[in-house]
Amino acid sequence: MTTAPCDLPRRALPFPSRFFFFVETIPMQISIVCDSGYGHTAKPAQSVAQGVRSVAGAQARLAETVRRLQPA
């Protein structure tokens, strides 16, 4: 757990202006599930997973169902 000081104007608060925020990183696991026939849905799902992984403490799991569509 880390602390960060915060200075706010005294006139805006009825209590002392020096206090600490406690910041705790809580690990998260996020699942992204997509159904991809030709692969068009998989590409945005991979981008979402990459964005999730850029957040501290977040883990992304990409689950993809693959169905090959037969031409008509």
UniProtKB/TrEMBL annotation:
Acetylation recorded as keyword: no
Segments forming domain Flavodoxin-like: 30-72
Top-level taxonomic group: Bacteria
Xref: SUPFAM superfamilies: Flavoproteins
Keyword Flavoprotein in annotation: yes
Keywords: Flavoprotein, FMN
Family matches, as InterPro entries: Flavodoxin/NO_synth, Flavoprotein-like_sf
Protein name per UniProt: Flavodoxin-like domain-containing protein
